[in-house]
């Protein structure tokens, strides 16, 4: 059989496809024969062709991986001997590599102690005076330890002594490479003793990497991964060496050696960014910030070679702004600093460099300064919003009209970043910025695609909190023109995406444009050509947005057609992105006209279940020829495991499945994970689960206690990631901004829980949590803390108004919360005042008549505010709060005095979401006392001022009787 097998393997290298197909079929048949193991061993030992020896070792590895449990003990021991013999006598490195992977599979099934000959060989070869023997031994060691690192732990101390010696063997770069790979694998499994031993190895490691870079940059790039593992180590062994590591990264990443590849520079700079992320306090303490910035800024502002452009300035539709190159890595380092360092400490170093760049006449200097402002926006958002928004926006605005397109492009990117992260404050500058953006978008066909992409990015972010109505006609004219007239598919795709963003901001104001938009989208949605696919998927996404925003009456006639469209597309086009979009479309349609989905539920759920079972998008990185992957189909062990799992799932009852490790998993990781960012991500995910699933999350009563207690622990700073003892620099000032974000994520969960369970169930936990929230409302706290405190209190009260028992709980809490909210309306910051006014309205709504004795106090506060307040959003929320008081207990409100004052501030100017509250109040009052309403509201000029809300008002009128509608209509005509 061995001779036949060698012949079959030799045919795989033939140029004839028919021969290869026949050989592959023969291999699959032979692979099922138990004798295949012995035959492959014979080929591995005896073939004179190294390619065949390698192929045989790959096949043998697949057989061992899938059938080890079925092999008898004698065959296993025989196989171990043959493999080790083959490895020792092999002279070709690529065959040794495959054999080492075969050894690794065996070690994964059995501990190294069960293979004494392997351990003996590793000990002898790695300590050999022969350089080649050391290379071979370290290759094998790296592979077997990577496959099963835990059983090797008793040998770690001995291995570290070995590596300390190997790392000084600078004339043997291959040995250095495999030594560092093994260190990388070992590091996460080392205990305190081994890590302390590792301290003395780090300087030798850095020197070894420098020598490896000279010998093989690709291997050095891979070996650099050792830094990531060391940085993540719980025992901070690298702290004494951080300055040395920073210098090494800067020397490689931004040094003058022109022989170094971009991929190596990128890997090194990315390692530096990761170091800053995990050890920012030490970087600050050791005064390395200035050194790093002085090194990376020249990279950030570097001009490309003559006649070339930076990738982001090229007119390349496929370019990704996050493509890795050294210049982008420099920006990522600054971004990481902004996310993980206190702004006050960072800005003293970075702003002088940035301002110098912005003042330069050199376009690439200006570009570098603008990119710097852009990447600071996320991590330093609060600092910029409250202390330097206008000074940051000014150079960005100026850049949009710069004569150099490189500067304009960077300015558009910066504006997009600022618009995304500095909301809602950045919207104050809409009068300055929107005309610039609209002017830029008016010449879409002449602009570079890369610039147009950034312009749309800025526009979509800027619209998030914008009063869009004044700009809506121009925006839609521009977008529809692009859809109908542009030949460029990318511009069409961007325009369709922008229409979705506009619809989110405009809601029912989009009704006049709905028909032409749908006409344009239909042409894209039915296409079957590959080049139209991105535009088609974006059109589906925007169609989903329109379904959710345009209004049920307008969209409902299209609902059935949309469902059929989605089913037709998934039947005819095999594309995962397109299927994802159809799922979103079904979800959107279900909010408009759920009945139209009923006939198609079987088809829809079948597609979704197949998607859940699919391994699409999950790729295996195999080094072998694809021919051998086919042999993996014959995987009996895996089939058995899959069958067992299916049986297990079938046996589970619904009650068992309701109690799955999700909430407990969230809770445990919030408490124990060392990474603030990870904990924030977990809290955000937990909040999303609670928001989506509501009471289902708390079917198990223990979950309410677990979630409440973990929120309490975060607010008390008792989790591991908030414990200074887990950081190497206990004496350093806390990362205030990052810690504040962590508290906010925890606080956001409280109103979500309050809205998901009966109030009486949550009340005991709420009593424990409220003092922690209220403590952040003190005048000595920061603006962000005060805003967070009163905002969270307000959302809790709003949630209590929606659940059973909420009124009684809100009433009991009113004596504690009223003073906090009243103090908040006198705050110097508009956002704090806004949240406090909203909270007072929510208190009146949630507690109802229970707090009627507090109405005089609340009305007095509001009366004083009306004479002094200038912020439009605060005034709008004040109007809404008065309306909530009236809706909850109108008998306790002196309407003769309050209603004229309320109407005088209408229509709302900034917070359009409160229109529903205002019009609900006016409708209720009209039903109760029409004369009072008509006298105060229907007067000349009011409806002229309120034209902006006529669509909302007409929607409200439809809820009245015909007689009432006639009276209002006559009054409108008279005015």
From TrEMBL:
GO terms for molecular function: small GTPase binding. GO terms for cellular component: cytoplasm. It is found in: Cytoplasm; Nucleus. Keywords: Cytoplasm, Nucleus, Protein transport, Repeat, Transport. The keyword Cytoplasm applies. Its main location: cytoplasm. HEAT repeats lie at residues 817-855. It holds the Pfam family TPR_IPO5. Residues 23-89 form the Importin N-terminal domain. GO terms for biological process: protein import into nucleus. Coiled coil: none annotated. This is Importin 4. It comes from Takifugu rubripes. The gene is ipo4.
């Amino acid at each position: 059989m061995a001779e036949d097998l060698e012949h079959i393997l030799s045919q795989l290298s033939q140029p004839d496809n028919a021969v290869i197909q026949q050989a592959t079929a023969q291999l699959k048949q032979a692979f099922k024969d138990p004798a295949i193991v012995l035959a492959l061993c014979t080929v591995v030992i005896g073939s004179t062709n190294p390619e065949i020896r390698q192929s045989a070792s790959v096949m043998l590895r697949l057989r061992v991986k899938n059938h080890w449990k079925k092999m008898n003990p004698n065959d296993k021991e025989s196989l171990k001997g043959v493999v080790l013999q083959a490895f020792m006598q092999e002279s070709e490195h690529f065959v040794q590599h495959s054999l080492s992977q075969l050894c690794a599979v065996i070690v994964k099934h059995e501990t190294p102690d069960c293979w004494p000959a392997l351990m003996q060989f590793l000990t002898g070869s790695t300590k050999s005076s022969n350089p080649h023997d050391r290379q071979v031994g370290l290759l094998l060691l790296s592979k077997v330890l990577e496959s099963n690192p835990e059983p090797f732990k008793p040998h770690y101390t001995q291995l570290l002594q070995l590596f300390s010696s190997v790392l000084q063997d600078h004339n043997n770069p291959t040995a250095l490479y495999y030594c560092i790979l093994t260190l990388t694998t070992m590091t996460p499994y080392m205990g305190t003793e081994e890590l302390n031993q590792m301290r003395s190895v780090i300087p030798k490691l850095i020197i070894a990497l420098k020598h490896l870079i000279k010998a093989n940059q690709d291997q050095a790039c891979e070996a650099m991964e050792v830094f990531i593992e060391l940085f993540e180590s719980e025992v901070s062994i690298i702290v004494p060496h951080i300055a040395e590591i920073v210098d090494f990264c800067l020397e490689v990443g931004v040094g003058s050696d022109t022989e170094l590849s971009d991929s190596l520079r990128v890997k090194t700079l990315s390692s530096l960014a990761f170091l800053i992320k995990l050890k920012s306090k030490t970087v600050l303490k050791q005064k390395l910030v200035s050194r790093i910035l002085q090194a990376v800024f020249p990279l950030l502002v570097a001009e490309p070679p003559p006649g070339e452009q930076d990738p982001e300035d090229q007119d390349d539709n496929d370019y990704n702004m996050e493509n890795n190159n050294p210049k982008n890595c420099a920006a990522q380092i600054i971004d990481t600093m902004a996310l993980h360092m206190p702004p006050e400490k960072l800005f003293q170093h970075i702003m002088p460099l940035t301002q110098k760049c912005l003042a330069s006449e050199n376009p690439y200097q200006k570009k570098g300064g603008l990119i710097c402002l852009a990447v600071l926006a996320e991590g330093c958002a609060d600092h910029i919003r409250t202390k330097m928004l206008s000074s940051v926006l000014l150079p960005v605005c100026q850049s949009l009209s710069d004569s150099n397109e490189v500067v304009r492009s960077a300015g558009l990117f910066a504006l997009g970043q600022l618009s995304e992260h500095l909301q809602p404050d950045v919207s104050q500058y809409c009068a300055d910025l929107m005309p610039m953006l609209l002017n830029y978008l008016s010449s879409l066909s002449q602009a570079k695609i890369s610039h147009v992409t950034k312009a749309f990015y800025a526009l979509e972010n800027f619209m998030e909190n914008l009063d869009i109505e004044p700009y809506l006609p121009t925006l839609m004219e521009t977008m529809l023109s692009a859809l109908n007239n542009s030949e460029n598919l990318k511009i069409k795709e961007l325009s369709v995406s922008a229409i979705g963003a506009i619809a989110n901001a405009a809601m029912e104001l989009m009704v006049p444009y709905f028909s032409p938009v749908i006409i344009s989208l239909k042409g894209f949605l039915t296409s079957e050509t590959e080049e139209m696919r991105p535009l088609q998927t974006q059109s589906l996404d925007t169609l989903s947005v329109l379904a959710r925003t345009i209004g049920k009456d307008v969209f409902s006639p299209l609902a059935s057609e949309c469902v059929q469209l989605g089913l037709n597309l998934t039947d005819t086009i095999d594309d995962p992105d397109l299927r994802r979009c159809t799922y979103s479309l079904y979800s959107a349609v279900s909010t408009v006209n759920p009945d139209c989905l009923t006939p198609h539920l079987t088809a829809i759920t079948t597609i979704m279940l197949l998607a859940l079972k699919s391994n699409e998008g999950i790729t295996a990185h195999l080094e072998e020829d694809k021919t051998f992957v086919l042999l993996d189909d014959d995987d009996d062990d895996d089939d058995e495991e899959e069958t067992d799992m299916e049986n297990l799932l079938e046996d589970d009852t619904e009650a068992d499945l309701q109690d799955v490790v999700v909430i407990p998993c969230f809770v445990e990781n919030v408490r124990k994970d060392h990474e603030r960012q990870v904990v924030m991500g977990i809290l955000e995910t937990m909040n999303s689960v609670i928001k989506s699933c509501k009471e289902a999350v708390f079917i198990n009563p223990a979950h309410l206690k677990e979630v409440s207690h973990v929120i309490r622990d975060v607010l008390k700073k008792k989790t591991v990631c908030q414990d200074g003892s887990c950081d190497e620099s206990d004496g350093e000032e806390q990362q205030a901004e990052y810690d504040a974000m962590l508290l906010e994520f925890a606080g956001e969960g409280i109103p979500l829980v309050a809205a998901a369970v009966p109030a009486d169930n949550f009340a005991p936990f709420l009593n424990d949590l409220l003092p922690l929230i209220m403590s952040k409302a003190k005048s000595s706290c920061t603006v962000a803390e005060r805003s967070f405190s009163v905002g969270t209190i307000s959302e809790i009260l709003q949630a209590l108004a929606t659940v059973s028992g909420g009124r009684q709980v809100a009433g009991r809490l009113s004596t504690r919360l009223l003073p906090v909210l009243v103090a908040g309306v006198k705050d110097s910051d508009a956002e704090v005042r806004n949240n406090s006014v909203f909270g007072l309205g929510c208190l009146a709504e949630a507690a109802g008549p229970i707090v009627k004795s507090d109405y005089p106090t609340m009305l007095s506060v509001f009366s004083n505010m009306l004479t002094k307040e200038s912020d439009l959003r605060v005034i709008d929320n004040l109007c809404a709060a008065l309306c909530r008081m009236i809706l909850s207990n109108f008998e306790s409100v002196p309407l003769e005095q309050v209603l004229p004052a309320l109407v005088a501030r209408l229509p709302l100017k900034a917070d359009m979401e409160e229109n529903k509250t205002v019009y609900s109040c006016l409708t209720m009052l009209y039903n109760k006392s029409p004369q009072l309403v008509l006298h105060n509201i229907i007067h000349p000029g009011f409806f002229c001022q309120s034209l902006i809300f006529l669509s909302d008002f007409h929607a409200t009128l439809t809820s009245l009787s015909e007689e009432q509608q006639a009276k209002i209509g006559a009054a409108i005509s008279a005015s």
